[in-house]
Write a structure and sequence with these properties.
- By secondary structure, the chain is of the alpha+beta class.
- The protein contains six helices and 14 strands.
- The strands form two sheets. Strands 10-9-8-3-12-1-14 form a seven-stranded antiparallel beta sheet. It has a seven-stranded antiparallel beta sheet with strand order 7-6-5-4-11-2-13.
- The chain is rod-shaped and about 140 Å long.
- It starts with a helix and ends with a helix.
């Protein structure tokens, strides 16, 4: 249609040029105007008048010029429409790519990050739906504008029908894309809900497992036939003795332990009271020797237990002159005095297995944590005789502590520490 109109314009101009030649050196400048505007922007060359009326040739020329302006306007409108269609097609392609990438991303991932959940895809799809609605409104506006221009320009009805069919097809494509995106939104919502439920189920399973480990295994042969396992150097794995200490003027503390941690096995046990976090502490920190702290006073003990085997450790102390003794596997390896002399052990504190306390019951330091296994932690309110310690170490007698006995219902574990059945004497014979 445009080709025919252009050919007509060319013939009309040629015919007009044959009758009236333009003024030499003159130039006509024409600009596109809406149909209802005047022709002031495109002056016509001077035409001879016949009785005050235009000749048929002049009328034809004027009609051709007006038709030419209409064709120019329609070409601009069609160009704008094509640009809008290209923009719409590009946005639809990006929408499909984004939605497809989201769907593929949701299906490709295979790990849960414990609360690290993906961004809500519903928000993305809603934004795309709003953008598509805006584009649809623009298409409707273009359709209305084209219909108005077509009516004003007197375009043929078949051309208007072609434009309407094209716009109708674009609108149907747009509606299909919107429906597909709505389906994708529903699918992504369902996948997100399933992912959240799976994550919650995993967390609940882990929580139940931690609870079971903290509760410990109660199926022991006897109440004292268990060990506390502290496999990691952290600030949250520990055991806690439910009972506390009375005021003490002497004590003996014995326990079995096994560790191969390096450097230093950490803190097998600590006792803290209000105002003094280091009331009683046994610690091997870094490359330092094992130390016994009482009321924050220090004595170095000649003990060597980081070979990964079970060892029986006993420490005795009395407030009189601060006398202390250190036994390993029933043998006395060291003794000394002046360790917090005449200082009674304060009552009402907290006994922790595996961590050094900076405040009562807390502020643990992972670098000072014990790594290994503990068992048969007993405390007496007197200094045991050497033969008694030997009998305990070689398993010839069973003598629980009269202040703190090693029994299952007196020990709680936290943070992933666990209690397991063990016969320390049998394990010790295997090590030998």
């Amino acid at each position: 249609m445009l080709a025919l109109l252009t050919a007509g314009v060319a013939l009309a101009v040629a015919a007009g040029g044959a009758q009236d030649s333009p003024i030499p050196g003159s130039r006509f400048v024409c600009t596109a105007l809406p149909p209802e505007a005047t022709h002031a922007g495109c002056p016509l060359p001077a035409m001879p008048m016949q009785g005050g009326t235009l000749s048929p040739e002049e009328e034809l020329r004027a009609a051709v010029l007006q038709l030419r302006e209409t064709v120019v306007q329609q070409k601009e409108t069609l160009g704008a429409q094509r640009e809008a269609i290209r923009e719409l097609t590009g946005k639809l392609a990006r929408c499909e790519g984004l939605a497809g990438g989201k769907a593929r991303g949701s299906g490709a991932t295979g790990k849960d990050t414990m609360g690290d959940l993906p961004r809500d895809p519903g928000h993305v799809v809603e934004q795309l739906s709003r953008s598509l609605q805006t584009l649809k409104d623009r298409l409707e506006s273009l359709e209305l504008q084209l219909r108005t221009n077509a009516s004003n320009a007197g375009l043929p009805s078949d051309f208007r029908e072609v434009l309407q069919r094209r716009l109708g097809e674009l609108e149907r494509q747009l509606l299909r894309k919107v429906a597909e995106l709505e389906d994708e939104k529903s699918l992504l919502h369902n996948e997100t809900s399933a992912h959240r439920q799976k994550t919650e189920s995993t967390l609940n399973t882990l929580l139940q497992r931690v609870t079971e480990l903290e509760r410990g295994n109660s199926a022991f042969k006897s109440p004292d036939a268990f060990k506390v396992s502290l496999p990691l150097r952290t600030n949250y794995l520990y055991g806690k003795i439910k009972k506390t200490l009375p005021e003490l003027y002497a004590f003996t503390i014995c326990l079995w332990l096994r560790s191969s941690a390096s450097p230093g096995i950490g803190t097998p046990f600590s006792y803290a009271v209000p105002g003094q976090a280091n009331e009683i502490v046994l610690i091997e920190w870094g490359n330092n020797p094992i130390e016994l702290l009482i009321n924050d006073k220090v004595a170095q003990l000649p003990l060597f237990v980081s070979d990964g085997k079970w060892h029986h450790i006993c420490i005795t102390w009395t407030t009189r002159d601060g006398m202390w003794e250190a036994f390993q596997d029933g043998e006395k390896l060291g003794t000394g005095e002046n360790l917090a002399p005449w200082h009674p052990i304060k009552p009402g504190g907290v006994l922790i297995l595996g961590q050094e306390q900076d405040t009562v019951g807390g502020r643990f330091d992972a670098t000072q944590a014990f790594v290994g296994e503990l068992s048969q932690f007993n405390i007496w309110d007197r200094v045991l005789r050497a033969q008694e310690i030997i009998n305990i170490a070689n398993c010839s007698t069973n003598m629980p502590g009269n202040i703190i006995p090693w029994v299952d219902n007196n020990v709680d574990v936290f943070g992933g520490a666990s209690k397991w059945p063990v016969e320390t004497c049998e394990e010790r014979l295997l090590d030998l």
